[in-house]
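pls ignore typos typing on phone
coenzyme A + seq
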Amino acid sequence: MSEADVVTYTVRGRAAVLTINRPEKRNALNGPVRCAFVGAIDRARRDEAVRAIVVTGAGDKAFVAGADIGELEGRTAVDQWRTMKAPTIYESIERSPKPVIAAINGYCLGGGLELALACDLRIASSNATFGQPEVNLGIIPGGGGTQRLPRIVGLGAALRLILTGELIGAEEALRLRLVEEVVAPGDLMERALALAETIASRSPVAVAAAKEATRAALDLPLAQGLALETSLFQVCFASADKAEGIRAFLEKRPPNFTGR
Ligand code: COA
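k done
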């Protein structure tokens, strides 16, 4: 398999679908996958036909079963330090102005769960399994799990998953608000694409600004978060999308947003 094929890029409607494609290794994240994934997110950012991104795993067993454990063997602290200087899949998702939806179709473990946590929305199939099993390997989550998981599910549930390494099913993940929705396996892509299409029908300028402002709520003190909201609100007023959205409402017709 060539490097380009380890993450496939297809456009469905106005969504780019990024599929991590190592099903024989449960889509584990190795160097080539990480590199191709960051490139694919950037490609989607530049692709004018694309307004939202869906991330999934190839095959019916795994979304992503974590970092490639084979790669970790023999890796020194210095090797790991250098590796972690590369642009990360997690930050590429968070920085993407186009919302990223995780369509979780099986094992979602370790770095796979961290990838899902970095996404803006998480839809799981009913056969998905979640966990941060790193403590079984003598390491801790290193892709942001210790920081993003408690921000999403709260400290207690995060500590339970991270300290025990135990796996949970989709219904438990829904109860913890780790995922937004659980659907039948056969409906997963259709549901993720429907969500992507709904987002694609809105103003791209407003969607990108809303993502940035809302995500900042978890990082910034309230006064700074409100100041960011105010400045992004004002940016919207400089957009053709705002003029179109308001005019379309007053003219009782659907808006035609251009993202300008
Ligand atoms: N890294 C590297 N290879 C992995 C992998 C990972 N994270 N997860 C699975 N694989 C490989 C297996 O080694 C196996 O390869 P092989 O066929 O060459 O022996 C192949 O994928 C299939 O895995 P297998 O364990 O036979 O499949 P399964 O469906 O019975 O179990 C898992 C799937 C995901 C439960 C199990 O593979 C597992 O526990 N993986 C590790 C999860 C983990 O600890 N992730 C955190 C890493 S930091």
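The mean pLDDT is 97. DSSP finds twelve helices and ten strands in the chain. more later
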